[in-house]
Amino acid sequence: MIISTLGSHSSLQILYGAKKEGFTTSVITDKNRENFYKRFNFIDEVKSYNSLDEALDLINKNNEESVFIPHGSLIEYLGMDRVKRIKTPIFGNRNLFEWEANQHKKMSLLKMAKIKIPESFESPEDVDRLVIVKLPGAKGGKGYFIAKNKEEVKEGLNKLLEAKLIKSIDEVIIQEYVIGIPMYFHFFYSPIFKRVEITGMDIRYETNVDGLRRLPTNLISVEPTFVVAGNIPVIARESILPRAFEYAENFVNTVKENVPPGMIGPFCLESIVTDNLDIVVFEFSGRIVAGTNLYIEGSPYSWLYWDEPMSVGRRIAREIKISKLENKLGEVTT
């Protein structure tokens, strides 16, 4: 069997883990990145494309022999229309993609799961506190902005429209800016073992908001931006973990009820931890996140389950391997 993925985001980790589990590996990449991926001997096949339609054709080639692993760049690169035309079995729940791409649907799913979330504002006119305005999809923070009042929200939205980053203000979500520290909790739901596993956590390293912290306040004359450039490892106080697990299990149960066949594989609850150690979840990712790249030999948490190096990429491959041996591949792919 071939494990394939799109060349970007967490593809090296995915393919390295698949090779560790004995699979043939294949990366589908933009022609400009072909030489980069050829450097790694754990990638058996590098397929390059010149157009996005060609990329889709490559994903669908040999679809009966492959499992395709989605990550955060998939929809951002190919677009939802092409992703819907992927015929190759996808590890995970492809029905969750549309929920993830729509900020309002995304937050409604968290709310249904009884997870604490920031307050959202339907209209700029309703804004009465510090807010962050976020764009749909996995844009790595591009275009996000902070506003202190409704006037600043309107001004920022006009800039997004002029830059054609959005077509309508209905695409964005205006969310209360919760004061605290960011903490992104990585989880994995296994339909084979019927359990939620915590696989690690990270903090996003964002420009230029993180760079501005190095300057005295009186010298700052630019607005912060939130484009993600990297990730930083973090370990939570153990007393925080029971609530994080409660939220993760609530999320899994809610996805099962509302987005059949339910949660499969990795997901992330992107959170703020407040000064009273409360967890406020402001977003979720329904697939592998780039913060897991920190743990190519496994995080301190993954060792608790496996007692061996277990990255999320390898954990995906392990789930596929076990499901194939037990004739349950249909339970982990859609």
Automatic annotation (TrEMBL):
Binding site for 5-amino-1-(5-phospho-beta-D-ribosyl)imidazole-4-carboxamide: H9, S73, N231
List of residues binding ATP: E206
EC number: 6.3.4.23
Pfam families membership: DUF1246, DUF1297
UniProt-recorded Gene Ontology molecular function terms: ATP binding; ligase activity, forming carbon-nitrogen bonds; magnesium ion binding
Record-level GO BP terms: 'de novo' IMP biosynthetic process
Keywords tagged on the record: ATP-binding, Ligase, Magnesium, Manganese, Metal-binding, Nucleotide-binding, Purine biosynthesis
EC category: ligase
Domain ATP-grasp stretches: 94-321
Keyword Kinase annotated: no
Cofactor: Mn(2+); Mg(2+)
InterPro entries the record matches: ATP-grasp, ATP_grasp_subdomain_1, IMP_biosynth_PurP, IMP_biosynth_PurP_C, IMP_biosynth_PurP_N, PreATP-grasp_dom_sf
Catalytic activity: 5-amino-1-(5-phospho-beta-D-ribosyl)imidazole-4-carboxamide + formate + ATP = 5-formamido-1-(5-phospho-D-ribosyl)imidazole-4-carboxamide + ADP + phosphate
Keyword match Thylakoid: no
UniProt pathway annotation: Purine metabolism; IMP biosynthesis via de novo pathway; 5-formamido-1-(5-phospho-D-ribosyl)imidazole-4-carboxamide from 5-amino-1-(5-phospho-D-ribosyl)imidazole-4-carboxamide (formate route): step 1/1
Biological role: Catalyzes the ATP- and formate-dependent formylation of 5-aminoimidazole-4-carboxamide-1-beta-d-ribofuranosyl 5'-monophosphate (AICAR) to 5-formaminoimidazole-4-carboxamide-1-beta-d-ribofuranosyl 5'-monophosphate (FAICAR) in the absence of folates.
NCBIfam families cross-referenced by the UniProt entry: PRK13278.1-1
Family affiliation: Belongs to the phosphohexose mutase family.
Protein name according to UniProt: 5-formaminoimidazole-4-carboxamide-1-(beta)-D-ribofuranosyl 5'-monophosphate synthetase
